[in-house]
Protein: Ribosomal-protein-alanine acetyltransferase
Amino acid sequence: MIEEKTAFKDEQLAYELWQLSEDAFSTGSPWTKEQFLTDIQQPQTNYLVVREENKIIGFLGYTRVLDEVEVTNLAVLTTEQQKGIARRLLQEMLQREKANQAYSVFLEVRQSNVAAQHLYESEKFRQVGKRKAYYHEPDEDAVIMCTKLKTEAMKH
Structure:
């Protein structure tokens, strides 16, 4: 079952997301507990969370401004990877935001994270640019990807 951030206490959710990120990323969590907490408390952000037996095993964080969405975090516990959890989270967010009339969804991904890029491409994301040295420890470029949730109205 996928739950939203409102199903959790902010501080506890921030701690659990940070812990999960520490496990999920070979480079460690890209954010501190404090950064997660600050993000969770923003009204324009949402988190979709997969919890099994009272333990968070995956999450997707995103921000919406007007009709644009940016995925800020997507992580799954290493022991739960390759089970379709990231895809379920991504599809759920895309479905919700399409229903909410969002126009496009952007995200950044490490250039070396080919598995994630394949997942995004399979969900109709396309590479639209790069950010030089966007990531640190180790320094690495980010691939910017985007998908359109609706087409622009045709002008007559």
Remarks:
- The first strand starts at residue 2 and ends at 4.
- Helices lie at 10-24, 33-40, 85-99, 114-122.
